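Baseplate J/gp47 family protein
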Amino acid sequence: MPFNRPTLTELRERNRSYMQSELKTDGALLRFSNMGVISDVDAGMAHLHYGYLDYIALQSTPYFSTDEYLAGWAALKSIYRKAASAATCPTVSFNGTAGSIVPISSVLNRNDGYQYTLDSEIRIGTDGSAVGSITAILPNPVDDTTGGGKKGNADAGTVLTLDVAISGIQSQATAVESISGGADIETEDAFRTRMLLAYQNVPQGGNDTDYKIWALSVPGVTRAWVVRRLMGAGTVGIYIMCDGNANNGFPSGTDGISQFEDWGAVKATGDQGRVVDYIYPLQPVTALVYGCSPIPKIINFVISGIPNASNETAAGINAAIDEVFFSEGVPGGKILWSSLLISIGVVPGTAGFILESPDTNVQLSTGELPVRGTVTYL
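C-alpha cells:
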C-alpha cells in the first residue's frame, strides 16, 4: 500500500490538536498565540522533511530518478547523456578573385545570427569560385541549456555572410548541401528511455535491441529500427530518424556501410555514416551493417462532415495525425485506420467527421515511413 504523504494543512491541524491535548485546555489555540505559532512552524519543518524523503524515494530507483541521480543509474549500464552536436556542411561555395584566400576559422553568419566557422583554408580558383566545409559554433550552455545544436541545421541553398570582410572575396557564400547533424543536449525523458531500455534488455552480443541501443547512442538520432538480412545473408539494416532535422526529421546523408569496413560496398555518409561508424567497433565481426534512411511516404487526407473546421481544430487534427505516425510508424509497417479515427475523434470540434481518405489501414512498402501530406475538408 503506497504511503499517503500528509499535506501542510493536515500537519498544522495535527500539531494544534496535539498541543491542545497536552496543554489540557478548552477551546482552540488563538491565531497569534505562542503555542499556535510554534505548532505551525513545526508543521512547516515537518512538511519539508516529508518532501525531502519523497525526493529521496524518487532517486532510489532508475525509473523515477532525475538529474545527477539519473546519470548515475545510467552510468551503471554504460549509458551516458548525449551532448549537443554541431551541425556541419561539407560543401559551401565561395566566389571572388582568383588566388584570394579565405582563412581557416573564418566566421560566417546566417540571416538569424547563427554562426559557423570554416574548417580549413580555401583559395579561389581560376574560375572565380571555391568550396569548403563549415561547422556550427555551439552556443554557451549557460545562455542556452538545450545546447542549441539543432538550430544550426539548415536547408541546402542557405546563404551565409562573412562576419569580417576579406579582400577579394564576395561577402556571401552558399551552402550547396544541407547543413545537418546538429542536435541539442538529450532531453531527460529521452535519456531515461534509453537507460530503461538497457536495464530491461541484457546485452546479447548483437541482437536487435543491442543494435537499437547503439544507434540511439549517436547524438541527433531519436528513433531507430533494425531489419535483419536487409541486403542479404550476414547483413543488418538500421533505419534511423533524426527528429528535429530540417528534412522533416529524415537523416541527411547517403545509405551504406561504415567507412572502417574493408569490403568494397558503398560507404555511408552524413547521419547514416555517423551511426554505422559508431556501431562498427561494437558489432559482431561477422555482421555487415547498413545505415539507412527511411523513404518518406506522403499520405494525403480527405475529411468530410466538418467543412468549416476552425484553424484550431485543423491544427489539432494535424497534430493528432502526426502523433499516430510518430508512435506507430515503422519502416515497412502498417498504420491502423482505427488509430487515426480515435486520435482525430478526441480533437475538439471534430464531432461528426468522416475520414474519407485513407479509408483503410495504410500498408507501407519496404523502408517507407509515413509523412502527413495535405488535409482537405469537404
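Residues 300 and 373 are 5 Å apart (CA to CA).
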